[in-house]
Design a protein that fits this description.
Blueprint (H helix, E strand, L loop, with lengths): L1 H32 L26 H12 L7 H9 L5 H13 L7 H11 L7 H4 L2 H9 L28 H17 L15 H8 L8 H6 L7 H11 L7 H11 L1 H11 L8 H17 L16 H10 L5 H6 L2 H13 L2 H25 L13 E6 L4 H10 L3 E6 L7 E4 L7 E2 L9 E6 L2 H26 L3 H22 L1 H15 L6 E2 L17 H15 L8 E8 L22 H12 L1 H9 L9 E8 L4 E6 L5 H26 L12 H10 L15 E4 L14 E4 L10 H26 L1 H4 L7 E4 L3 E4 L11 H4 L14 E5 L2 H10 L1 H8 L4 E5 L5 E3 L1
Parallel strand pairs: 1-2, 1-7, 3-5, 7-8, 10-11, 10-14, 14-15
Antiparallel strand pairs: 3-4, 5-6, 8-9, 12-13, 15-16
């Protein structure tokens, strides 16, 4: 008996090992497949995302071709965008000709060079082929007679879901039906407390909850539900079962999974993000694919006998022949007299010089024009290096492109020095505001918080504040509960109607006054008492991260940030640490106008923490022993730049020295003019700004407070470059709010560590922001989120168009489009400019293989300015 028992135990162990091995195999394939999508954060914590972050080992051109051939997604600017930019003078055609010559020189073609050049120059005008030519019977006859085309191009096709090739009896594609089902289940599972009733068995995980409920889904017919009866209870087993039933070869499983992930990249991206947030959801992407492909099999089973072959993509001869007649000045008669071999060579050339390549050359010329003009703007001015001792105040701003115009206006009004640094100020913290039991990360989403900082106040003040806050929360909760209750919702209109009607009318006709009244009422009622910060380390074993900093950490963070700013000597009497934030009404994308890197967190809290650290006597004493002497009369204060209204709001102003008070008073005196000028410059770019109005400040507040305003500000639109160097390099340059600015002094970076950290951190973040705007502009139907006016906020997570679309991952049209037909954002890949000797840049590229790959593969552009002011493109 014991021997039998031992054998059974051994068999169970072998079975468990086999199951674990199978699960491991499928998880490896899913992890590899997930490179084609990007994690998607909830819209309330909007973070810029590079939709191609997992594909950067391939070149931009390769990814563009792959997406075009497999998903019909075009990520080069359209012909209309290019021609519009050309008409505005944004593209120097000389660079198009240079690019064409480079391409012709790098390829060998068996046709005369002069013929090839004439054809290319004509085709580069980007005019479409005439429709009457394409429909010509003679042309079609010649194309049909052509036997075949020899091309050197090898296409890597994605294995598309089988459901994308099959239609039901009503003519509806099965993949569209499948998407509709999957969207419904995703909304049910991912709902963030928006629905009145939560998904049953949700705590068991996505797949198991679906598995329990699918037998009761009225959207499936009885036969389809029966097919899923007895389906495996474990997600990875169900996924393997479905793939086997669909007869997907092992060698093609990964690409098949990729095809399904790309079908709904928003919902899949949200599943991917959630899977990385907590251990109990680590297999969520596997569960998502198990649900999706299991349902695909259930829908497909009656059709599987029809075909399981991927459709062949044949080269269409007619457009290639038409291009030679239209652009190559060939007649049909001349074409007919050519030998078959010559015809093949001509068609092969036209096939190689396709529309994608033509627009690629135009994009590169557009980028080179921008690079050339930026270099002339920077190196043409001979600037006097201002003695930092003469600066009355020094301001540390976020590198955000919206800070640049504000900094420029501020520098015009006094002896002020401005500095650029990543707006979380090097502090890896989570913040817990007064009276809150929760905290939120206040740093770039690519990092994890290491400390929690809490606001505290007097116990009696805290109690009164919490009571007031609880009253508001309870009222809001009661309103929401009544809305979602069947009986109570019948009474709700009678109770809330008069108040909501009055609010609607007042917000519509006098939005500024109404918003000011509501805001003042809320601020008076929820007035926060004076608070202090928990900077000192608190030993709490139950906390995931420690509260506060140790003495050593306080010094380390202060030192690190001051060095990153290049501020280690010649301190002004007043140093203003400026975070940035935004304010707008009725705007699902409010978080997108905060920090593009920090998941919608404003920078004011971090600014206050850093200023407080730098004012601590013990921190200054330790820094002094290391050679960083902060004068006794220098005081650090904190403020926040409100980007929607271009105002500076003070957050933390301790007792000031006499010199610091003088600087503070000077800032207060000039700030109205700075704000006026910055608003006038910024608002003039908005298409619905009434230029005859004489009060830009009032108009800026109207944009922020009007609940019908779909474009309160442009955000980071038109961003195009990231300059890493001293402020003297760009001072007095009008960079048009298009450039991220980070201070850097190569003289203080002998090891190159500072530059490496800037590239790894802010460099990555700016690239993500840049490609988010790029993708939302060139492919808005896939990477954008459509019109704000028709969006539906769903599940408390994000937006959809209608009630059954993908979860839209990108920016709305109003963030990138001037009008329905004209873009505002110029889709240019980020130009990174480093002010340093060339050997510093070479060392950076040699040591950082990830960054080197981004440059070589065309995901970013790179240039440098050496100490003699010479510009070099890398």
């Amino acid at each position: 008996m014991s021997g039998t028992s031992g054998l059974m135990t051994e068999n169970v162990k072998k079975k468990d090992t086999n199951i674990n091995h199978q699960e491991s195999d499928i998880n490896v394939l899913i992890e590899s497949a997930s490179r084609v999508i990007a994690p998607l954060w909830p819209i309330s914590a909007f973070a810029a995302r590079n939709p191609w972050m997992g594909l950067e080992k391939q070149s931009f051109e390769q990814v563009a071709g792959w997406l075009n051939h497999t998903r019909d997604i075009d990520i080069y600017p359209s012909a209309s965008m290019i021609l519009s930019a050309k008409s505005k003078g944004e593209i120097d055609e000389a660079f198009v000709k240079i690019g064409l010559k480079r391409w012709l020189d790098s390829h060998s073609f068996n046709i005369p060079r002069d013929v090839a050049e004439r054809f290319c120059h004509a085709a580069l005008k980007l005019d479409p082929l005439p429709s009457n030519l394409l429909s010509s019977l003679k042309l079609k006859k010649l194309a049909d007679e052509f036997s075949g085309l020899n091309t050197d191009r090898i296409e890597n096709f994605l294995i598309q879901p089988i459901s994308s090739n099959i239609e039901n009896e009503d003519g509806e594609r099965l993949d569209n039906i499948l998407d509709h089902h999957v969207i419904k289940w995703c909304k049910l599972y991912l709902d963030d407390s928006q629905a009145g009733w939560t998904m049953p068995n949700r705590d068991e995980g996505f797949y198991r909850a679906w598995h329990r409920l699918i037998q009761h889904d009225p959207a499936l017919n009885k036969i389809q539900r029966k097919r899923l009866k007895g389906w495996p209870k474990e997600a990875h087993m169900a996924l393997k079962e479905a793939l086997f039933a669909l007869e997907i070869p092992n060698s093609e499983i990964q690409t098949y999974l990729e095809g399904h992930l790309l079908s709904l990249p928003g919902w899949a991206g949200m599943m991917l993000w959630r899977s990385r947030q907590s251990s109990h959801e680590h297999s969520l992407l596997t569960e998502y694919l198990a649900v999706r492909i299991s349902m695909e099999w259930a829908l497909l089973k009656p059709y599987l006998h029809l075909t399981n072959q991927r459709p062949e993509k044949k080269v269409s001869i007619a457009p290639l022949l038409a291009s030679w007649i239209h652009w190559g000045d060939l007649t049909i008669e001349e074409w007919s007299q050519m030998s078959a071999a010559v015809q093949n060579r001509y068609l092969s050339f036209a096939y190689s010089f396709d529309e994608k390549l033509r627009r690629k050359l135009w994009l590169e010329a557009w980028e080179q024009t921008h690079t050339n003009r930026l270099s002339q703007k920077i190196i043409s001015k001979q600037r006097e290096i201002i003695d930092k001792k003469s600066a009355l105040a020094q301001f540390a701003f976020c590198i955000d492109v919206r800070s640049e115009p504000f900094r420029r206006q501020l520098e015009k009004e006094g002896p002020f020095e401005t500095i650029g640094i990543a707006g979380f100020f090097g502090l890896p913290i989570a913040t817990s505001e007064l009276g809150s039991n929760h905290s939120h990360s206040s740093l770039p989403v690519i990092l994890k918080p290491q400390h929690k900082i809490k606001e505290t106040t007097d116990e009696n003040e805290l109690k009164l504040y919490q009571q007031r806050k609880q009253a508001v929360t309870s009222l809001s909760y009661t309103f929401k509960t009544m809305k979602q209750n069947v009986l109570a919702s019948l009474l709700l209109p009678e109770l809330s109607g008069p108040w909501l009607s009055l609010q609607m009318v007042s917000r519509s006709f006098v939005p500024r006054r109404t918003d000011r009244f509501i805001r003042n009422l809320r601020e008076i009622w929820l007035r926060k008492p004076n608070t202090t910060l928990s900077l000192n380390h608190v030993h709490r074993t139950e906390a995931e991260i420690p509260v506060g900093f140790s003495d050593e950490e306080k010094v380390n963070y202060a030192r690190q940030t001051l060095k990153m700013m290049g501020l280690t000597k010649k301190f002004a009497p007043l140093i203003v640490i400026c975070g940035h934030g935004s304010k707008s009404t009725n705007n699902p994308y409010a978080a997108a106008l905060e920090c593009g890197a920090c998941g919608g967190a404003a920078g004011g809290f971090n600014a206050r923490v850093l200023a407080s650290l730098c004012n601590l006597p013990e921190v200054r004493e330790e820094l002094s022993s290391e050679g960083i002497e902060i004068p006794e009369d220098t005081v650090f204060v904190a403020a926040e730049h409100k980007t929607t209204v271009d105002e500076l709001h003070w957050i933390y102003v301790p007792e000031l020295s006499e010199a610091a008070q003088e600087a503070f008073d000077r800032i207060e005196a000039v700030m109205p003019k700075v704000s006026h000028n910055a608003n006038a410059e910024r608002l003039a770019q908005l298409p619905n700004f009434k230029k005859e109005l004489k009060n830009p400040k009032a108009e800026a507040h109207r944009f922020a407070e009007d609940w019908s305003e779909i474009r309160p500000e442009w955000g980071l639109a038109r961003n195009a470059a990231f300059i890493i160097g001293q402020r003297e390099l760009t001072q007095d340059c009008d960079l048009e709010g298009r450039v991220f600015l980070h201070n850097y002094d190569w003289n203080q970076d002998e090891s190159g560590d500072l530059l490496a950290n800037i590239i790894a951190g802010p460099g990555t973040v700016t690239q993500w922001i840049n490609l988010q705007y790029y993708a939302s502009t060139v492919a808005p139907h896939y990477y954008g989120s459509g019109n704000k006016a028709t969006q539906t906020v769903t599940a408390g997570l994000g937006v959809m168009q209608g009630n059954a679309s993908d979860l839209l991952a990108g920016l709305p049209w109003q963030s990138v489009m001037q009008s329905d037909h004209e873009v505002y954002h110029s889709p240019l890949r980020l130009l990174i400019v480093i002010q340093a000797p060339s050997e510093y840049v070479k060392r950076l590229l040699n040591n950082d293989s990830v960054f080197r790959g981004k440059v070589q593969n065309g995901w970013v552009r790179l240039a440098s300015v050496d100490p003699d002011g010479r510009w070099e493109n890398w």
